[in-house]
Amino acid sequence: MPDSFHVMAKPVGPACNLDCTYCYYLEKEHLFPKGGNFRMKPDMLESYIRQYCASQSSPEIVFTWQGGEPTLLGVEYFRSIVDLEKKHAGGRVVHNAVQTNGTLLDNEWCRFFREHNFLVGLSIDGPRTLHDTYRLDKGHKPTFDRVMRGLDLPKSIRSNSTRSPSSAPATSNIRSKSMTSSANPALDTFNSSRWSSACRRPVFRASPNRRNQAGRHPR
Ligand code: SF4
Q1: What would the DSSP string read from start to end of 73-99?
Q2: What Cα–Cα distance (Å) separates residue 137 from each residue in 5, 35, 72, 177, 203?
Q3: Which residues in 101-129 are b (16+ Cβ under 10 Å) and which e?
Q4: Ligand 1: which residues within 6 Å by Cβ?
Q5: Mean pLDDT estimate for the chain
Q6: Which residue from 20, 27, 134, 207 has its CB within 8 A of the most atoms of ligand 1, so it is best to mutate?
Q7: Which of 66, 101, 121, 144 has its Cβ near the most Cβ atoms within 10 Å?
Q8: Pocket test for ligand 1, best of 18, 201, 205, 212 (most atoms within 8 A of CB)
Q9: Confidence band for 36, pLDDT divided at 50, 70 and 90
Q10: This prediction's pTM
């Protein structure tokens, strides 16, 4: 039986552009030196990828990237991740998954995810009324519309690419996953898209004064 395991990496640490009321992870920045940069440095990134590949004997390797908000790192950073995976995987198949709050996605991100077959998880708390209660930005503004814009991006790119054959469609790598959407017709888009939308937060337990409770995931 080949050795295989799965690690969830957070190459941007607790840095995030949102300030969800239930997030227990943002406060972890106090564990780092003041004014520090949470970005995983290139030598550390390569060391992680090299050791992760070397420790597994399975024919396929799965990387998962989370945050904070991993898209804060920029597309070029993720290109370097893919290059390092190729360098150290020894010809084995590499899969990548990323979890994002969706607010910073743009066409470049969508094309990158498509090109490298990333599985993209989009964090959303359900209908607007629920989502906008807890998932706020740093200015305490709601984020539902920004997330939905990010969700719709791959579809708009696909329609454009139908008109322009040279454009790469940006949807086919993004897996659809079950989402309870009957409460809000807007969420039916999840069922027709190929994104993996995640409703992982226990929204009914969340409240602004519960940040330190254990057992909740910051996505
Ligand atoms: S739950 Fe996720 S998106 Fe929200 S503040 Fe925490 S890390 Fe950012």
Answers
A1: G-HHHHHHHHHHHHHHSTT-EEEEEEE
A2: 34, 21, 14, 25, 17
A3: bbbbbeeebbbbbbebebbbbbbbbbbbe
A4: 16, 18-20, 23, 25-26, 67-69, 101, 123, 218-219
A5: 79
A6: 20
A7: 101
A8: 18
A9: confident
A10: 0.76
Q: Closest ligand 1 atom, CA of 17? A: 8
Kindly report, residue by residue over 97-122, the tens digit of the pLDDT.
999 999 999 999 999 999 999 999 99
pLDDT in tens, 153-185: 877 766 665 543 333 333 334 333 323 233 333
State in Å: Cα 120 to ligand 1 middle: 16
Residue with CA nearest ligand 1 atom 2? 219
Q: What pLDDT is attached to residue 218?
A: 59
CATH of 11-205, one of 1.20.120.450, 2.130.10.10, 3.20.20.70, 3.50.90.10: 3.20.20.70
| Residue 67 and residue 14 in contact, taking contact as beta carbons nearer than 8 Å | yes
* Number of the ligand 1 atom closest to the C-alpha atom of 101: 3
CA of 209 to the centre of ligand 1 (A): 15
Sequence-distant (≥ 6) Cβ neighbours of residue 163 within 8 angstroms: none
